[in-house]
Amino acid sequence: MNKLMRLDEVVDAIPAGSTIAVGGSSLSRKPMSLVRALAARGRGDFRLIVDVGGPEVDLLLGTEKVRQVIYAFVGFEIMGLAPHFRRARESGSVAFQEWTEFTVMAGLDATVKRVPFLPTHVGLGTDVLAVNDAFRRFTDPFGGETLVAVPALAPDFALIHVNLADPQGNGVILGDGHVDVLCAKAAKRTILSAERVVSAEELQRYGRDVQIHRIHVDGVVEAQWGAHFTGCAPYYRADLRHVQDYLTAARDPEHWAAYVDRFVSDRHADYIAAVGGAEALIGRLEV
Amino acid sequence: MSDPTAEGTRPQSEAAPPAPTDSAPNTAPPYTIDYTIDELMITVMARQLQGEVLVSSVTALGALAAHLAKRTHAPDLAVLSTPESGMEVAPIPTLTLGQFLTDAQQGIPLTMEDIFDAIFLDRFRIWINPAQVDRHGHVNITAIGPWDHPKVALVGSRGIPEDTSHLSQIFYYVTSHSPRSVVEHVDFRSGAGYGPDRVRELGQPGSPTLLVTNLGVFDWSGPDHTLAAVSLHPGVTAAMVAEATPFPVATPDPIPTTAAPTPAELALIRAADPLDVRKLEFLAGRAAAEGLVNIYERERQALHAAVWPHRRSR
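ok -> structure tokens follow
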């Protein structure tokens, strides 16, 4: 089956109020072309599920597309805090639910396994259990110890960026896998963006690096530099110059409007031109 | 090469040697070698790591401590290039190239499942630098002020609850010991310390082991598992610690002085961090921004120079 889509078709396929899991981690392999398209034209009122989030959460908050964020982390690592996330957390304008890295994985895995929750010790002794009422303490029916029930997380959509995909939806990840396979399996519908779309025959040569399987995938968008301004190992690194520009703009409402105007679009080619063109990106970012 | 772990063979200064900072006066005794606070802290951190466990490299100081330990007293450590990525690499602190290092050095790739399984099985060690650490060993990276109306929203608990629910040893460091970072009670417990909740719900796991700051080395061996000084860095007095800490810190008298890095340890640290990424953790504002840009522009070159030519060839 040919699952190739255009960015604008992806935006149209995602209804208002959808729960969206986003792959990648921190400044690594975030599906930024898909996220920018949703920030530009998405119907909004989204619930986001991220394990280690950053620019995707901040951009969708900054364009007012979000009603709730489920997260273990949102930030820009050594570059600083996420400005829109920080503002929304401090003002309470959006609902937030703090999870942890493993419990996000466990919640997605519960959906994959079609069980209502998975047990863990994670969170005991911390305030995560005090502020997140999705988790429940319960008593182990066999041994009597206290455990935490992590409820299933059931995304309507997963957005994932991969190095290579074929038109049927198989995806190759060549760097760290993060929690992308779990996102793809747990979501009702999974959309891949790919640096390059290749034939099924060519993709199959990647063997064990084909981590995303087509039985879990509904759409494929070709987007070279589609993770920019995050990195996509082993092709290109995160663009920290652009991260600095983003953070400067996001900290100031006036600059932010100009940033959105210039960079936030569902036309990926326009974005690449706005950040200086592919040649400039190769020089700055290829490793 | 001399054995850098042979601490007992080195002379220890009894009479307040210079503080190990960039501003140290030029009155050092002749046997004192030049080192900076980051290098002293890395050396202390390295000495805590031992055995055959995964060691994460979330921060430059943590990565360098793992590297130093592996190259000295703990050759069996499995050192990661990034928090996830691959093991059997020499971590070169960079801003953007951790995953690339895994490939460049032909590291063994790991998954998130591998990492958390190692945590659950207590075969994992990590140095964490929290925004706040408290008298009872709780740590906070989530928020300053109440969680639902924070004065400053930080980043979220990330994987710290996993660590404190399962590891038998937890290591913390802060680069700026002050009433803002070392507090009586954290504003939010991202990680479990000592206290009734922990005892009731967790038992032994999650016991904080050590805190290294720019002033000294501490543990929670004070009354009722409260913070106590183990050693103070050269030039640091108990009065300085008292001024920087908003609660009493149990301090033995006399208090030992933290052993300085050996020349061999310093050489290993500096060779592993040619870009001085470790210094960024001590900078703020413009100095940090300039340092960051400088490293970012140079780090691809450093990565290419760091490919291990003696690894298996094809």
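Residues 122-151 of chain A form one domain.
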